[in-house]
Amino acid sequence: MSIIAPAQVSTQPIRNAMTIDVEDYFQVSAFAPHISRDSWTNLPCRVERNIDCILALLSASQVKATFFTLGWIAERYPALVKRIVAEGHELASHGYGHLRASDQTPDEFREDVSSSKKILEDLGGQAVLGYRAPSFSIGTQNLWALDVLLNAGYRYSSSIYPIQHDHYGMPSAPRFSFYPNGQDGLLELPITTVRFMQKNFPAGGGGYFRLFPYQLSRWLLRRVNQQDKQSGIFYFHPWEIDPEQPRQENIGWKTRFRHYVNLDRTENRLKALTKDFQWDRMDRIFLPNT
């Protein structure tokens, strides 16, 4: 039975959580049928360049964020991980090799989340408390994954997206922080949505942030802060600020549109977002006693 976590109560402006899913362009789930994992090491990487830009953007706005980082990336770019930590950001796990949780057995998932946690903690020198499943791939069919995460030492997950989507989503899940397995279990922190006409609509970034006009994204997040009195959770990927990334030619029109739409506008939109709202790390907002 789900238990809703207490709403944030404060006289200060509501802080929202800024989060980045640290993966490279060739690792996105939509490209999996077209780019083999065996070829990853031979492809030109863009993640270092993009993270440098993101860290500079956050520093200029004095924003601290949570970086959900792949173990595969961390092993190959340890200096990147150390810089994220050195600049005061939270280091969290995105799994090892961007495998969907729903495509793994419990034993495979346990190995994935445990190995990625160890890699990140060894490099970053700080406890890794948070996990986000690739493609928000925890839902009604694999809620067992939450107990695996808890037993592996995680405190929270941001892996259940309460929307209807063709690749993921659990529309019946609570919109805000909750304990799916009781207060002794893992805290789940869903990406932000807005409720209209008995349906949840995405309001927390990703491809929707690139597709919608910025003014709509800003209005949606303000509605959550002002009407729901809740902290929003926003996410994006490093490749979303990189219009110069190598283009994939063997993909369908829907995948092409979703991946490449408005890449040239994202960085400026993020700069505006950091000025229009208060931001902080996931752990500081949702685990205040850590």
In words, what does this structure look like?
- With 290 residues, this protein is of the alpha/beta class.
- Helix content is 36%, strand content 14%.
- The protein has helices at residues 47-61, 71-76, 78-86, 106-124, 144-151, 207-211, 214-228, 253-260, 263-276, 282-286; strands at residues 3-4, 15-22, 66-69, 90-93, 130-131, 156-157, 178-179, 187-188, 193-196, 199-202, 233-236, 278-280.
- Helix 4 runs parallel beside helix 5 (144-151).
- The longest helix has 19 residues, at 106-124.
Oligomer: single chain
By secondary-structure content and strand pairing, the structural class works out as alpha/beta
The count of strands amounts to 12
Sequence stretches where pLDDT stays below 50 over 5 or more residues: none
* End-to-end gap: 25 Å
Helical amount among residues, as a percent range?
25-40%
Provide mean pLDDT, rounded. Answer: 93
Please write the string of helix (H) and strand (E) elements.
Answer: EEHEHHEHEHEEEEEHHEHHEH
- The proportion of strand residues reads 5-15%
Task: Please outline the major beta sheet.
Answer: 5 strands, parallel
Count of helix runs: 10
**What is the radius of gyration?**
18 Å
List the topology elements.
Layout lengths: L2 E2 L10 E8 L24 H15 L4 E4 L1 H6 L1 H9 L3 E4 L12 H19 L5 E2 L12 H8 L4 E2 L20 E2 L7 E2 L4 E4 L2 E4 L4 H5 L2 H15 L4 E4 L16 H8 L2 H14 L1 E3 L1 H5 L4
Parallel strand pairs: 2-3, 2-11, 2-12, 3-4, 5-6, 6-8
Antiparallel strand pairs: 1-7, 9-10
Helix pairs in contact: 4-5
